[in-house]
Write a structure and sequence with these properties.
Blueprint: H1 2-23, H2 49-55, H3 57-63, H4 84-87, H5 91-95, H6 110-117, H7 133-136, H8 141-144, H9 162-167, H10 171-176, E1 182-183, H11 215-220, H12 235-239, E2 249-250, H13 262-265, H14 280-284
Antiparallel strand pairs: 1-2
Helix pairs in contact: 2-3
């Protein structure tokens, strides 16, 4: 009996061991490495400015003498990704035979070009660009400025002077500054268009004017003696200087929009003095003293306003 019991126990142990081996999972096989493949261009990878200048050497050299090339200024492209700060990551452009995958501003829309420039130039005088007249007319930054090939050093303009640049669109206004009688001192170099206007747009004023919230406030920047207040105010003076003056230039004295007395008679047609318009007959036959010299201002000298108690007619 002991022999048979011992044999049964051994047989039971063998069966249990085989059953346990059948249930246990097999050890996993070691992973095999994938077959080697050529490395594809990584989207968004930067090649570096040193790689760009291998082909675009002239463009790279042109930046060295401009604010865009000042690496010490953290707000410049040179302090970030260099050429690729504006043109986008260029590794795909380097690897692609078709030379694609790069921003070419000459081929982009004005809105896309402006979006790139406004990434940095969005403060100070540029803050009013969105919604400005030039932006609504579908102009882009490269219409007036050139990053790589500027003609003028100041502001990297595409024309030699600011006046020449503005004249490409605003020919009438620039032509008025050439008037022989009275004009803004633009051609003498004492002023420029940007002395009064902000070409990037104005947030608070009309006509892209830089100062204040009205035309008059811009004029008062230089003509402070006309500001007032006065005891007796002249309505058109108080409302808008351009009611009587042409701010760019005129063939009349003092840049008047119309020669006096016709200027005054645009409003004063039926009061005090005779209501007839001063015409050729008044000059040749009657020899009216209101047709020569300072005309109405021979008597009404303080036409911009009077502080005299008896100055309601601006004669004192």
């Amino acid at each position: 009996m002991n022999r048979f019991s011992l044999a049964a126990l051994c047989l039971l142990g063998v069966i249990s061991a085989r059953a346990a081996g059948a249930v246990s999972p097999a050890a996993p096989a070691a992973p095999q490495p994938p077959p080697a493949q050529a490395a594809a261009p990584v989207p968004g990878a930067y090649a570096g400015a040193d790689t760009c200048v291998v082909c675009h050497e002239s463009e790279g050299n042109s930046l060295k003498s401009t604010p865009h090339g000042e690496g010490k200024n953290p707000r410049t492209p040179a302090a970030a990704h260099g050429c690729e700060s504006c043109h986008g990551p260029g590794q795909a452009h380097v690897d692609d035979d078709a030379k694609g995958h790069i921003v070419k501003f000459a081929q982009t829309t004005p809105a896309a070009t402006n979006e790139t420039c406004l990434g940095c130039h969005n403060r100070g005088v540029h803050a009013g660009w969105e919604g400005s007249t030039h932006e609504r007319r579908n102009l882009s930054c490269i219409t007036c400025h050139s990053v790589h090939n500027p003609t003028a050093t100041a502001h990297q303009l595409v024309k030699a002077t600011e006046t020449q640049l503005c004249a490409t669109c605003h020919r009438l206004q620039v032509a008025k500054t050439e008037r022989a009688v009275a004009h803004m001192p633009v051609r003498e170099g004492k002023m420029s268009c940007s002395s009064c206007h902000n070409p990037h747009g104005s947030i608070t004023n009309v006509k892209a004017l830089k100062v204040g919230t009205s035309v008059n406030e811009t004029c008062y920047k230089c003509h402070a003696e006309m500001r007032g207040p006065t005891l007796w105010e002249h309505a058109p003076v108080r409302e808008n200087c351009t009611t009587c003056h042409d701010p760019h230039g005129s063939s009349n004295d003092r840049m008047l929009a119309v020669r006096m007395p016709m200027l005054c008679q645009r409003c004063h047609i039926a009061t005090k003095h005779p209501a007839s318009i001063y015409d050729n007959n008044a000059i040749t036959v009657n020899k009216s003293n209101r047709m020569f010299g300072r005309s109405c201002m021979n008597c009404h000298q303080n036409i911009h306003g009077s502080n005299h108690p008896s100055g309601q007619f601006f004669m004192r």
